[in-house]
Structures are given as structure tokens and as C-alpha cells.
Write a structure and sequence with these properties.
alpha/beta, 19 helices, transferase, Methyltransferase, MTTB_MeTrfase, EC 2.1.1.-
Length: about 525
Amino acid sequence: MDDATERTARAGGRRSGGGATRRAERTATHIEFSRFITRNIPNLEILNDEAMEIIEANAETVLQEIGVNFVDNPGALRLWKEAGADVDGERVRIPKGLARQLCKTAPSQFTQHARNPDRNVEIGGKNLVLAPVYGPPFVRDQAGGRRYATIADFRNFVKLGQMSKWLHHSGGTVCEPTDVPVNKRHLDMLHAHMTLSDKPYMGSVTEASRAADSVEMSKILFGDDFVDQNTVMTSLININSPLTFDGIMMGALEVYAKANQAAIISPFIVGGAMAPVSVAGTLTQVLAEVLAGVAYSQLVRKGAPVIFGAFVTSIDMNSGAPTFGTPEAAQITLGAGQLARRLGLPYRSAGSFCGSKLPDAQAAYETANSLNIGLMSGVNFMLHACGWLEGGLVSSYEKFVMDADQLGILHRLAAGVDISENGQAMGAIREVGPGGHYLGSAHTQANFKEAFWRTGVLDYKPYETWEEEGARDTATLAALKVKKMLGEYQAPDLDPAKAEALADYVARKKAAVPDSFM
């Protein structure tokens, strides 16, 4: 096992004796956690310097001549006017160079702390942090099919995330629990992340008051002073593309920026509908929107941590449905990564994107395309890294564990090629010589446990064995994996006083207002 992975084994009482110990070890629950990825490979750069300069100049022109709308937010308009922008109603026109200058105070890298310090993540630089699916109102599994998500489903996905070796982050709205009132569900969701996982998590953004609750609950978990001085949340602030910043999202951003908590400033682009059909045109709009959003965060609080976001997909011009894993989306993801690095900001994009209704071949192709492009484009924070189905409408149990398994490949690819003396394997080549085989060589015996990435889901057995075991497809194997993981789940330790204080806060806040499902 490499240094980047730690293994925690939990088992019941063990009898003395070597045989009993070995049997106990085989049947114990092993929970493995992998450190966030640090790339040892170069990023793929699709734009040359001239192309980037053109896109950057065009984005500045958009901000100065066309402008952006900050709607239902008089305070934002006042801050922009004080900063030197031209404010006309809700339209803000930003002089060339102003937004870029304001962005300079945002950190290029920051630590998001987890309640278990071993799970802290570094966002930015050469690092890649993987977080699960976010936002679907529906869930799907083999047993129940497609249905509205519940808080029980939400808790299950948090447990799966906690148990998944290659996931570094618990995420946010892993599904939308529709059986809990809209005005109260953020409390239950945050409580689940805080108690069922010890990985980092995301805060609520659906109202400024819910963002404030997220900060208050985090202070219960971490302590007031710690939250004031450190980043413990990374939250998603979507821009209403094209070029519109609504009061709800900006209200949440303001809460997080003032509290020194991180926000992903992310255009939500469906090419051809919310941005031009061309790659360069879309990159221009993405950059303009990010510049304005990040600059505004720095007007709220200089030095507030932010992430350059780019959620981009194309559209099927026949049906109007979004499409995923396409070459155009790949080009935009790669190009936006270059623009983010030029700004000196952490970058969020890519994920397990697919338009398929089932965890099938279409889902696998589209997801693989998006995940691999995300790695090569230099993404630092990958939301939706596992579980996404049906264009983001569905959180799939089976696809969650299928995707989470494949994330191990990103870890291995990012590590690069081992060129150490052991990696060169000259001793093995000499030992085996012409016509031999390496199965019994000393080098193979010393390295076989970690030489190759190993799946925890896919089937590589001989046909006869596969047939005898029921000729199970990947989704069926994944369903069995889900059942096993949930059956073996054990909640991470939490200070009883903090657990009680969190439960009390949630109960008091929920009792203070009537239920609302609107």
C-alpha cells in the first residue's frame, strides 16, 4: 500500500492464535481512505497563447460594453458602483481590467478542513479533490427503480461516500430529499454530512438564511474561532447564464465570503441555449461570468476563497436535451482550465456526466470521457464525480459505486510513471531472461499487490465461473456492492456533546417555523 492511502480495519473481538487472527482479518470490515490526488503528470493544453489572449480580450469587452445583471440585490449594485463600475439599473458594466484586478486577492490554493484532520483537502495547485453527485430530485436503484428521493436515500448516499475509498469529499445535496419541507431540508442534509461522515462537506445555497445556518452548524462542529479562521465549507454558487447573477445565489455567496468560507463561482452552460454554439464563444462567456463573480466575492471580502467553475455541456438540436461526454464539452473543459490557471484560481469542472437513463454502456462511455478530460484539464475540485444519471436528474445507487470504483483509475494515472530503480525493473529483466515468465520473479513477488489498479466492482472471472454465479452484469454487481457497503457502514466517532448540540440546533430551527414545500 502506498503512502497516499491509509487503511482502517474495524473488527469484533479476536481469539488468540494465528489461525483465528487470520480468519478475523479476512472477515473484518476494512475501510480504506485515499488522500486527495496530487498530479505528477502535465495538463493537456488545447489553446495556444494567441487564442487565450483573444478570449481574455473578448471577455473584458463583454464586461465593459454588454455588462452583467445583478438582480434583486441593491447592496451588490452599491459595491460595484463604489468599485468604479458603471451601474445602470441592475446592469453592471465593468471597465476593462477592473474585474481581473479584483480577482488577484483570491487565493490560488486553500485548505478545506474536515472534522477528521486526516481527511483535510488542498484545493488548487496540482491537486484534484473528488466529490459526489449534487442536486438530483430523483434516485434510482435496481430494486425500486426511479423514484423521488427521500432523506433516507440522502443518508444512504452520505454513508456510501464515507465508505468509498477514492472519494475525498462528502459533497452537498447528494440528492434532494423531497419528503422533508423545502425550508427545513438543508438542516437535515447538513446534519447527515456532519454526523455520518468525517470528510469535508458543502453548505446550503438556496437562501442566504440557509447559508447562515450552515455557518452556525459548522461552528458547533468545529468551534467558533476555528471557523472564523479556517475554511470548513466549499459551496456551489451557480450563475444564471447568460450574464445574470440572481439575488438568492449572491446572497448565499455574501454569507460565505464574509465568513471566509469557499464558494465555487460556476456558470451553468448548456451550449446553444445559454451560451453560443462555438467553443471560443462559450469560453468567452464563461470567463466573463467567472471574472464578474469572483471579483464580486472579493468586493464582499478580500481574500475570500473561491473556485473558478465551469459546468458546460452541449445540446441535442433535435430534442433540446443536454448531451454529455461530447468533444465540444471536452474542448471547453480543457480551455477553461487554461484560463483558470492564467487567473491563478482553483478550477472546478467535469464529473461522471451522462444523459443515459440507466447505468449502461451509454452512461459508461459518456462518464469515462468526462472523467478523463477532467483529469487532463487540471480540474482541482470535481463535483459530480460519482452517481450522476439522466442528465443530473437522478442519483443512482449502482452508478455511484461504479463511478467511485473508476475514480481509482484517476489516482493511478495522475501518479505518472515510476522511473525509480524499482520501476525500471532491470533486475527482473535480468532474472527472467529470454523465453521465461515473470510470475515467479522476485520483482513480481515484491510488487504484485500494488502493481496494478484493482477494481472493486467489475468482473474478470472466466466465463464458466461468471455463468455459474448467475451471469451478472455490472449493474447487478454494483447493486450487491451497495448492499454490502451499507451493511458494513460504521459511523465515524463524534464528540457526544457536539452531536447533542447539532441535534438540538436542528430541532430548534425546524420547530421555529411552519413547514413549507414551496
